[in-house]
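Re: [ENG-882] Designed sequences occasionally contain unexpected residues at chain ends

Forwarding the minimal case from QA. Structure tokens:
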């Protein structure tokens, strides 16, 4: 009898899932199925599906990484990478200078680690954001070891959006740690004051507080080198159809609210969720800050990086913002699965909200061969891209 009840519950659960996301089943399978082929084996062959502008090439810098996410450089230009699904932080040695040619595991047995930040003055500290806490470690870049863990503070965990992302930035003359914490749900009124926010703290973990709010899931942050502003990608809510609401890029300001859960995009009121009656428009400045860039719905923007002016690429590709569209899971016809470019003017502002494809081809008729996540620039080598579906890190280079 117990087995019958379990079987009935499974059937009911399956029906509910189909009602919620049945029309988008193609998109779900594209996201969760194993990659189409082994891109590490075909990237140097005529079967390589990836398309880049003329003069650019893409190769595999590291493979067999399971699901690489956040990447940062250490002082020796080794790449430190978070591997959330394995609970690891690993190091990929700099191939041009290191005598070490194998992957090094710096930390293991962590709780879905994601965000990384390195801070060096006299000594170096590596900050690691697990899904439930942020810790700091002493980093010896000569011996490639992490020691003396100091747990700085707990973070809310559970629910949707496990990732916690870090950025060290000077705020009002003092170096601070910024921590992005996504919502616990698709759309809801949060009860935890630290969910759907970007938080700030001192580098020693003290004075943890809300920096900005109304951010459903700002998974990556980057500093604009010209305007000195903090830009962040934002994944908007699901289950309003294929084309709304847009995903976003926001310019993050202290003590500002970016609208979620009642507003999205250019301050559009989410009346599907918010049924309240207001005496004024709840989605308008100065109460809510609109998106800076609207991105096609369900593109799932993750890593973003500004090309450095010292980069050995043509000038037209240098003054640009590059964004990884991880790719949809709940859209009838899948979208995303590419790296795009936004051209910037002399003030560091976008020239147009219409992105240009920089790398495409991960998405094919048969599925997806990969999903780009983070972007990291080296002025001499080019662009590194992590791919958590194919389990690789790419290197994009330019040759005249």
């Amino acid at each position: 009898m117990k087995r019958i009840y379990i079987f009935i519950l499974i059937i009911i659960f399956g029906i509910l899932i189909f009602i919620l996301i049945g029309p988008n089943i193609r998109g779900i399978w594209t996201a969760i199925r194993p990659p189409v082929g082994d891109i590490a084996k075909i990237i140097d062959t005529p079967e390589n599906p990836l398309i880049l502008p003329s003069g650019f090439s893409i190769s595999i810098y590291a493979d067999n990484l399971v699901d690489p996410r956040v990447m940062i450089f250490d002082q020796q230009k080794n790449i430190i990478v978070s591997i959330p699904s394995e609970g690891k932080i690993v190091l990929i040695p700099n191939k041009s200078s290191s005598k070490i040619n194998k992957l090094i595991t710096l930390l293991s047995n962590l709780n879905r680690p994601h965000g990384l930040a390195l801070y060096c003055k006299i000594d170096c500290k590596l900050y690691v954001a697990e899904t439930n806490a942020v810790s700091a470690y002493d980093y010896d870049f000569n011996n490639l070891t992490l020691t003396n863990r100091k747990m700085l503070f707990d973070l809310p965990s559970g629910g949707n959006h496990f990732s916690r992302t870090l950025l060290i930035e000077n705020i009002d003359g003092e170096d601070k740690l910024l921590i992005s914490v996504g919502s616990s749900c698709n759309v809801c009124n949060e009860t935890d004051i630290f969910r759907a926010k970007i938080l700030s703290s001192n580098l020693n973990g003290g004075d943890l507080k809300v920096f900005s709010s109304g951010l459903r899931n700002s998974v990556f942050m980057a500093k604009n080198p010209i305007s000195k502003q903090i830009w962040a990608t934002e994944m908007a809510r699901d289950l309003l159809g294929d084309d709304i609401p847009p995903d976003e890029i926001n310019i993050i300001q202290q003590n500002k609210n970016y609208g979620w859960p009642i507003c999205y995009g250019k301050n559009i009121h989410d009346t599907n969720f918010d049924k309240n009656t207001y005496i004024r428009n709840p989605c308008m400045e100065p109460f809510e800050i609109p998106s800076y860039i609207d991105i096609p719905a369900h593109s799932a923007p993750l890593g973003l990086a500004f090309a450095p002016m010292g980069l050995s690429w043509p000038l037209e590709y240098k003054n640009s913002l590059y964004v990884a569209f991880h790719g949809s899971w709940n859209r009838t016809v899948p979208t995303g699965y590419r790296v795009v470019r936004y051209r910037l003017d002399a003030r560091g502002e976008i020239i147009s909200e219409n992105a240009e494809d920089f790398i495409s081809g991960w998405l094919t008729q048969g599925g997806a061969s990969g999903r780009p996540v983070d972007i990291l620039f080296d002025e001499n080598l080019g662009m590194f891209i992590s791919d958590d579906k194919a389990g690789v890190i790419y290197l994009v280079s330019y040759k005249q």
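QA comment: On inspection the terminal residues look reasonable. The first helix runs from residue 2 to 21. Proposing we downgrade this to a documentation issue.
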